[in-house]
Amino acid sequence: MCFQKKLKKIVGCLFALCSLSVSAQNVTVEASIDSLQILIGEQTKVKLEVSFDAHQKLTLPVVRDTLVRGVEVVDIAKPDTQYLNNKQRLLVTQEYIVTSFDSAFYYIPPFTVAVDGKAYSSKSLALKVLTMPVDVEHPDQFFGPKDILEPPFSWSDWKLIIWLSLFIIPLVILVIYLIIRYKDNKPIIRTIKLEPKLPPHQQAMKEFERIKSEKSWQHGDSKEYYTELTDTIRVYIKERFGFNALEMTSAEIIDHLLQENDQKAIDELKTLFNTADLVKFAKHNPLMNENDMNLVNAIEFINQTKIEADPNAKPVPAEITIEEKRSRRAKIILLSFIVVLSVAVVTMLVFVIRDIYNLCF
User: Fold this and answer.
1) pLDDT at residue 16 in the model
2) Which of 103, 105, 143, 268 has the fewest CB atoms inside 10 Å of its own CB, making it the most exposed?
C-alpha cells in the first residue's frame, strides 16, 4: 500500500511537470536582426515574432523613439498576423527599422510581451555600428564642400512656357480689339447676296426640260411623269395669274382660266389635266405619243400665256449692304467674350510667371 501511494505521487508529479512544459510552450517570443553591424547612418530591420494560441490575447511592447540609447527607431511597421495549425494558433510579426549615428557596440535588451496578462521575453540582441574608415596618412585626398551647381539649361523645361507666351499675345490683341469694338458701338454691316429670280415661264420651261430628259414614263412610271408635269403647270399658273392653283382641283383651275385666256389653249390644258387624273386615280397607262403630246400642250400653253420681261426695267442688284445697330443681346455676347478671354489670359499669365519663378529661383 505504501509503495502504491508513492507511485501515485510520482506519476502525479510527472503529469504536473508535463503540463507546465506544455503551457510554457504555448507562447514563443523570438527576436532577430537583419544585420549585426552597420555603418553610421545606415538602417537595419529588427523583427519580433510572437506565436500563441488563437484564443489568447496579446499585448506588444510599446516602442518610442529608441530601442536603447544610441539606437533610434526610424519606422514601426503595422503588425502582421497569420493563422497557423488550422487557425488554432496565431503568429504576430512586428518589424522596426532602426539606425544609429554613433559608432559603438550596442546591447539591445529582450522584448517583453504580455499574453493573457502574463509576461514573456525574447532573447537579447546586439548591434555594432562602425565609422567610415579614414586614411589619415593621405589627408590631401579629402576635399572641402563644393559650390552649388547650377542645373544645365533644358528646352523641355521652357517649352510649355514659350508656347503659352506665344498663345497669350494673339489673345491679348483679340481682347483689345473686342474692347474697342464694344466701346465704339459701330454698326454691324451685313452684305446679302441676291439670286435673281427667273420669270414664271422660264422656270416652267426649265422644269419641262428636266422632265423631258428623265423620260420617267419610259420606265413604266407614268404617274410620276404626270404628277411632275401638272405640278409645274400649277406653279406657273400661281405665279402668272395670281391664284393658288396648287390647292385647286383641275376643274377649278380651268374655270379660273376661262376668265383669263382663249378657249383653244384652255382646251389643250384641259386634255392634259384629264389624262393626268386618269393616270393618278384610274391607273390609266397612256401611249408614248400621248405623253409627248401632253408635254407639247403644256409648253404651248405657257408660250401663249407668258409675259415677257420689260427690257427697260431696272436690274436687281446682286448684293445689298445693310447697316444695323448693335442690339443689346449682341453687346452682352461681346462683353461675355471679353470676360472669358480676359480670364484665360490672366490664368495663363499666372501659370507662366509661376513656372518662370520656379525655374529661376
Assistant:
1) 44
2) 143
- Can you give the pLDDT at residue 211? 80
What order of strands is seen across the sheet that includes strand 125-130?
37-39, 125-130, 104-108
Distance CA 285, CA 291 (A): 10
Does CATH place domain 28-130 in 2.40.100.20?
A: no
pLDDT of residue 164: 83
End-to-end CA distance of the chain: 101
Closest CA to 118 of 50, 37, 59: 59
Cα-based distances in Å from 214 to 142, 200, 228 = 102, 21, 11
Where are the chain's structural domains? Answer: 28-130, 155-192+326-360, 200-305
Three-state secondary-structure class, residue 300: helix
In angstroms, the CA 274 to CA 267 distance is 10
Helices (H) and strands (E) in the chain, counts: 8, 14
pLDDT of residue 193: 59
Q: Is 291 exposed, middle or buried (0-12, 13-18, 19+ CB in 10 A)?
A: buried
Q: How many CB atoms lie within 10 A of CB 1?
A: 5
Enumerate residues 6+ apart whose C-beta is below 8 A from 227.
276, 280
From CA 349, how far away is CA 65, in angstroms rounded? 48
Q: Which residues of the chain have pLDDT under 50?
A: 1-3, 7, 11, 13-24
Q: What angle do CA 243, 246, 247 make, to 5 degrees?
A: 85
Which pLDDT score is estimated for 261? Answer: 65
Retrieve residue 78's grid coordinates. Answer: 503595422
